[in-house]
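Example record used in the benchmark description.
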Amino acid sequence: MTGLFPIPDSWVWARFGDVAVVASNLTDPAEHPSAPHIAPNHIESQTGRLLPYATVAEDGVISAKHAFQPGQILYSKIRPYLAKAVIVEFSGLCSADMYPIDSMIDARYLRWWMLSPSFTEVASQHQGRNVLPKINSRALQGLPVPVPPLDEQRRIVAVLEDHMSRWDRACTLVQSARKRLGLLRDGIMFSASMGRGVSDVSGSGTAAFPTSVGTQDGILPRVPEDWEWRRLGEIAEVVGGVTKDSKLQSDPTVPEVPYLRVANVQRGRLDLATISKIRIPEAQAAKLRLLAGDVLLNEGGDRDKLGRGWIWEDQIPDCIHQNHVFRARVTNGTIHPKLLAWHANGAGRKWFEANGTQSVNLASISLKKVKLFPVPIPPVDLQAQLVAAGERNISLADNAEALLEAAGRKAAALRRALLAQAFSGQLVTQDPVDEPASELLARIRTERAAAPKPKRTRGATTIANPTPRTTKEQSA
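Model output (structure tokens):
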């Protein structure tokens, strides 16, 4: 078959179905309650590492699932999880969004090919047009596979996995540095909003804490006696955003404006890469139109994301915000917006978590509660100095983050280069004594033709039901 790129003479391009069997054996989960249950979210992208999983009973599985056996490859057939494949060493049940695959070449070699950008890109071109696009079994079996001699496959895997283990360790260090940088940013925002490390902040006294209003204020940080604690609703106009009206969205006579969602409002920054639009009456849009200096705070999401946000700087004309994002517009210049935003993202995080409410899946905080958020107000003549000091430290953190982002891009490029070399015959040398791949494929065809066709019967598979590693055990 036609290949994607040049390969050595001793290699051949084959169809996936020539070197692997896409197994299918739907099984009643009620018959195997203690068996492991693997879904796409239990496999780490790119590395193919198996993540914490649980049993069929623990996951509450009720619909029929594919049974898998030791040595098979589990491959996610659904976007956005195409770059996920793992070799299992035990039996169990997997999500219907996965294929158990029997490899007739080196399984580790085939798995790495399935994790490669080349395979993922061509697989994505053969997905259906469902709400969550999937690649069906027939399309998968027609995808190309570069097949080296069997001994060379094993050499490639040995060298590739050695390189990838070091790549993985380096990526872990970068991820760890990102986490530490996040903690550093939190500390910078806390220090800036509290006046820590600024020489003009002095005094032996402590400002009086705000009067209780029924919120869980907890232990508030101490601030100098010439500062003042105020509730957010006393120093800013705080409003909720627009609720989407499905009827208006189909009316072309209603004006369409850009609006910010929770995903746009990150901690200490705004992500404006993707901006949605909404149809809303002009009078309502005018009331919700964002102005430079508005502080945006999230209303819902995970509990640790309540109150996160940043400052609007008029980046997009006529932009508004959705109902899950609050807008705080400071009145009378009482506090610099950056000091307010830094406080909300720093010391204020615990307050928002304590005062939010939790549903089954999401946390939220009401507009009434947000207006009661306690804010420390520095003297007006000190605020510019506090902002300047905070910006200097934030810029250092920004520089560090830029370096980490560059390291991440280099790591991604290195991974692509390693896989490209591995599957084009450039990672290891070819050995002329190796059996050519053409003879390997001929032997596979002969063995498959001679083998009796397996009888696939729903629920017939035997599962050993080993005691699986539960989520808690794997995380330990």
